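# nightly structure sweep
# worker-07 picked up a monomer target from the shared queue
# config: single-sequence mode, recycle default, output format = structure tokens
# input follows
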Amino acid sequence: MLPGLVITALVAVVVLLLGLNMIPTAQKVEVQPFVIAIFSVVFLSSTYFIYTAIQKLKDKSPGLLADADGLTYNISPLGKAIGKIRWDDIKSFKENEDIFITVMVKNPEHYLKRITNAHLRKQTHTRACVMKPGALLLISSHGLKCDYDELKHWLDNRLAEHSAEKFEKLRV
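# output follows
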């Protein structure tokens, strides 16, 4: 993840500097409005990529955190908005292609209420209507830089451990 961000940031800086270098010459020569529009888009895009690269470099939170209470996925904006998913609410982890693992929960609406960004909430609701009932979140093995099968096995084991602990507490 880091080398890709560094390359993106460097390209964005170069484009930004080249664009800033063109401003003095643009005042001497008559410039078409189309060129100004393209320059504006490139300038704003470069600024955005630099900003997002810096934000990602500053983020030190683990991509996937599993503790005794639940699971937290910090790679996607949706995962960050949802926060911790309690083990008691997770029904299973379903395979979805060879990159994503779908987190199936008992009550997805409970977690969707946590999303404060209206655009993200609408996008998530639309995707939830297309996906299986109970699907809440897609965990990316690619985003975590790990093997898909190992991740699926690890998640299934963590869920089984929690279920066994819960069963033991009920028996006592």
